[in-house]
Amino acid sequence: MIQRGAIASGTITLAEARGRGGKRGKLGIALQQVVLVTGQKATLTGIQGKKGAGSEQTAGKTLANIGEAGEAGILLAPIYFPLVMIFRRGEDVHLDKGETLTAVTKEALTLDGAALAAANQSLQNERQAEAEKLRLQQMAADEARKKQEAADREAAMARKQAAAARIDASYAMLVIYRELKWIDADAQSLYIDQQEIGALKRGCFVGLNLAPGHHNLVTGENIQPLDLLGGHQYWIEMKIEGEYTFRASLVAVDGQTAIHEAALRSPMNPHKIKLPRSAHLLSAGDIQLLQDLYADVK
Q1: 77 three-class SS
Q2: Domain count along the chain
């Protein structure tokens, strides 16, 4: 019968500041009236509270008997409105936002049946309107998300096509990488055509442009022969196996898988890489080309 957010009026019945000797502040509030959904005004009353446990004193009982038998019906329910409460907390008194006060009706109240029905209908209309508003907002958000996803796909596809047009057919791109694992071997030496190019750490990669033709990629006792074609891309993962004694191997991986595992964010230190004449490091533009070329476009 009382709409959420309805304003109740009342008076301050007691206000005492803290004093010397540890005297705590006091605050008394009496709620006196509230407007029901029918527009009628309900008079509130209560009893002064007695001292409670701890440092608080509270008052008020939850008891209401509103209405009498008649055409409008009877309302018998608790109304939770603070009527008279005295607060003591520490030295000062505080009334925090959301704190519950309790009040009861002073007298029986017969509700206007027509006004109550109109209020209920108005409340139902408000709820339906709010639900419809939320539905339309969700539809608009979903439509905006779909449009953005479509635009992102078109942009990614355009970058993929542009990347394919920038491929240099005079070289083959080769990426060797290790996934980031916390329990793993130290850096492993990597050789191309019998020349050590450096040690590959976990979570790192090295990207090369190599002359087309036959090459041997070696780590430890593992040899990965490569027959490279100009304008093509090749991905090799250095896998580490074992628990106490580690063993490195080189495994060819497809580009879609490798681009996510390699991430292409942590390259080997270029100052510690020695390359044969048939190879040179991928540039930042080459790395971006690979990311665009193997972007996952759904």
Answers
A1: coil
A2: 2
